[in-house]
Amino acid sequence: MAVEPNAKKRKSDDNKHSTEILSFAGFDFCKVLKNDLRSKTAFIHSQFEGKDAVILMEKTAFDANIVQEMLTEKTELVETLKNDVYSTYKTFPDKTLNGMKTTLIYPATKQHIAKYSEQEFHIVQESGEDYKKVTLPYVKNKALSNQWVYNILNKETEADRIVFEDTCPDSGFILLPDMKWDRKDMDALYLQALVHRRDILSLRDLDQSHLPLLKNILEKGLSAIKEKYGIPANKVRSYLHYQPSYYHLHVHFAHIKLDNPGFEADRAHLLTDVIENIEMKSLYYKEKTLVFKVREDDHLYKAFLEHGCIQK
Amino acid sequence: MAVEPNAKKRKSDDNKHSTEILSFAGFDFCKVLKNDLRSKTAFIHSQFEGKDAVILMEKTAFDANIVQEMLTEKTELVETLKNDVYSTYKTFPDKTLNGMKTTLIYPATKQHIAKYSEQEFHIVQESGEDYKKVTLPYVKNKALSNQWVYNILNKETEADRIVFEDTCPDSGFILLPDMKWDRKDMDALYLQALVHRRDILSLRDLDQSHLPLLKNILEKGLSAIKEKYGIPANKVRSYLHYQPSYYHLHVHFAHIKLDNPGFEADRAHLLTDVIENIEMKSLYYKEKTLVFKVREDDHLYKAFLEHGCIQK
């Protein structure tokens, strides 16, 4: 069993597995790795029982139902400015109404810590040749393990979260909510489709032989979202990342209102565009120069430098 | 003196004007006008003493100093997911550490309420045929005047802001800072290149005859930015919008660190991609389905509906 950080019960219940209430007791603060002012997320290097942890603390968007509960005398206001009809206040709602979200990575590797540290970025233009020479060896050697994906595909974890499954080994996939979505706020709807095939690393591998798979994901993914959540296709963006954060083919489905940092034009490739480009030319994604943003401390960036494919 | 909403003192101080501590007592909730998930701001229509109020409640970014104080046993965690080394928690810090910001508009006019109300968006898939049938007539009839662009090209306005000019009537352009850039913060660098030719409405018009123009903008635009501001090409994103906000061909140049809402994958088209796609196929952008996001109250959206090219 994985180590459970600080499973301290708050109420003196017996040992039943009801909702366990934990805390940050026992975590030693090391450093704020990054403080993202836009997403209002702090990335913290910490230690627990001598091992590294990465803590992502994120302010959450408002729940429209809770907003109403905040408009009472329990929410304290401290005036900071007043001008004509406009005034501003520091605002302290009741603790229980003002939750945040924490993602804990424990134990964390050096790569996890580097991934969440503040960094310089560069634009890389990756030709088809660059991919074979630089990126593919990097993916095979350095990329993080896909074990967590296989756990899901094997129904060893998160089986209860599956929204839809097509079990076909060639064109099938599992659709489930992204970790970043609370599954309540429909405007923030965000799911991922993980394909059952394990031989497709990314967009780069796709050609006309994969069209049935891609069209199946588009069609059944959108219709499952319509059926389960009532959100129609013209409100859902479906796209692939390049570079992806893990090299097992997957497709993102996000609500058009979700202002997602992963939807930048040098990372997100619309699934409908991918299908149309491959229909036009089977080898489109094997030959196309693909542009992406990369962190200066990323091994992939270093590999591009070492091979002389880019200049510093 | 303006009405002071609910000036209830929490401590029984005298009537001194020290920091007054107020609350939301006496505010009647009417409606959530908009819930912005990205900025984590709720816009609320409320009433106080029978008059309208607009309340903007915004989650604030983390203060790096306060983060450390949150890593104690006082911060409660409720586990919501666990998979391998990753786990997520609802997180409830001490109330005093977890302030938000409120902006109050009181009394508020109908215009204030409309300004902060939600708009619906839709994804439109525009085929080459749709463009000719719906979009082109719309652009010719309804789009805003380009007179302000011609004023710049004629040096009648903003001549002192020009960063670079290539005067060639076929492949020339004027490069100048975007109005949104303060010209001080280099991480927010943002310029636009306006072409001298007046016969190219947008990306849709481009074919191989425009390759010299496009390559000229890419090369000379990036080198002018390097020379004037010291920002190298691998830190600058160059792209076109579709739909653009005005129908006179122009190219955006923005710093890679600028978190620009105009760089979404269903609006921004990288200039290098545009060049490569046209080199591959001259009519690429005349035939390609182009995907864009449109507001429900936009005349273009209504035109698509009227022509039966999309369903509501």
UniProtKB/TrEMBL annotation, chains A, B:
Q: Does the keyword Cytoplasm apply?
A: yes
Q: Please state the Enzyme Commission number of this protein.
A: 3.6.1.59
Gene3D superfamilies in the cross-refs: HIT-like, Scavenger mRNA decapping enzyme, N-terminal domain
Q: What is its main location?
A: cytoplasm
GO molecular function terms listed in the Swiss-Prot or TrEMBL record: 5'-(N(7)-methyl 5'-triphosphoguanosine)-[mRNA] diphosphatase activity; RNA 7-methylguanosine cap binding
Tell me which GO cellular component terms the UniProt record holds.
nucleus; P-body
- Source organism superkingdom: Eukaryota
Provide the protein's localization. Cytoplasm; Nucleus
Name the active site residues.
250 (nucleophile)
Which residues does the record give as substrate binding sites? Answer: 148, 158, 178, 180, 241-252
Record GO biological process: deadenylation-dependent decapping of nuclear-transcribed mRNA; mRNA processing; RNA splicing
Q: What class of enzyme is it?
A: hydrolase
Pfam family membership, one: DcpS_C
Q: Could you tell me which SUPFAM superfamilies the record lists for this protein?
A: HIT-like (SSF54197), mRNA decapping enzyme DcpS N-terminal domain (SSF102860)
From the UniProt record, list the reaction(s) this protein catalyses.
a 5'-end (N(7)-methyl 5'-triphosphoguanosine)-ribonucleoside in mRNA + H2O = N(7)-methyl-GMP + a 5'-end diphospho-ribonucleoside in mRNA + 2 H(+)
The protein's UniProt keywords, in alphabetical order, are: Acetylation, Cytoplasm, Hydrolase, mRNA processing, mRNA splicing, Nucleus, Phosphoprotein
- Role, per record: Decapping scavenger enzyme that catalyzes the cleavage of a residual cap structure following the degradation of mRNAs by the 3'->5' exosome-mediated mRNA decay pathway.
Family according to the record: Belongs to the HIT family.
Instruction: Describe, as the record does, how this protein assembles with itself and its partners.
Output: Homodimer. Associates with components of the exosome multienzyme ribonuclease complex, such as EXOSC3 and EXOSC4. Interacts with NDOR1.
The protein's name is m7GpppX diphosphatase
Source organism (scientific name) = Magallana gigas
